[in-house]
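lol ok so funny story. i was supposed to be doing the assay writeup but got distracted and ended up predicting the structure for this chain instead. priorities right. anyway since i did it might as well share w the group, maybe its usefull for someone
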Amino acid sequence: MYVTPNNWGDRKTKSEIQQILNEYYDIDLRSQAGILTATAKRKNVKWSNKTSLSISFIVYSSNQVNADIRTSGGSLNVQNIEGEVTGRTSGGSITVKIFQRI
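and the output, tada:
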C-alpha cells in the first residue's frame, strides 16, 4: 500500500499521514479462502483537502489468478495475468499488459 497526500503542494510527514489514515480512513487488507481484499474507504466524516490522501495498492501473485478490481476514481493497471480479469473505475484509466511466454 502506497499513501501520499492528494494535494501535491501539501507536504506531510509520515506520522501526519498515519494520523490522517487512522482518523479518516478505513483500511481493509485480508486474505481469506484464496481471495485477497484490499480496500481503502473514507470514514463518514466531512471531506477536507487537508485530509485527502491518494492510496494505491500493488499486488503480486502467480499468473494463474482471476481478478476483480474496482476503484472509485483511480487507475487500474494489470499485467501478465492468465485468468479472468474484471475491472471497473469511475474516473481513472485502465491498462492491461499481457506478456507471451516463449
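The radius of gyration is 16 Å. Residues 1-59 form one domain.
back to the writeup now i swear
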